Amino acid sequence: MSQQKPPNKHKKTINTAARLSGSAIQMGIVIYLGVWGGKWLDGHFDTEKVFLPICTIVAVAISIYLVIQQLKKIND
Fold first, then answer.
1. How many CA atoms lie less than 13 Å away from 47 in the CB half-sphere?
2. CA dihedral 65, 30, 36, 57 (to 10 degrees)
3. Hey, how many other C-beta atoms are within 10 angstroms of the C-beta on 35?
4. Which residue has the higher pLDDT, 20 or 35?
5. Of 31, 33, 37, 32, whose CA–CA distance to 52 is shortest?
6. Percentage of residues in the chain having pLDDT higher than 70
7. Prediction pTM value
8. Which of 26, 38, 43, 67 has the least CB density, counted as fewest CB within 10 Å?
9. What is the rounded CA–CA span in Å between residue 38 and residue 43?
10. Quick one: which of 36, 38, 26 has its CA closest to 62?
11. What integer pLDDT is reported at residue 8 of this predicted model?
């Protein structure tokens, strides 16, 4: 009989940390793009800060959704 090695907990911890830091970067990029898009839309349609808060809130909601999905994958 061959002996199986126990799972390497340290490797799993590093993998989880890498995934979470990737999620943080993804969250920052999504929010940045939302703010940039809101500013662009305000400039394009010549409005004063109408699209900026809307796009920012939508981007934050999307990024929170993506982080929750990533956490579900990590816990499985």
1. 13
2. 20
3. 16
4. 35
5. 37
6. 91
7. 0.82
8. 43
9. 9
10. 26
11. 74
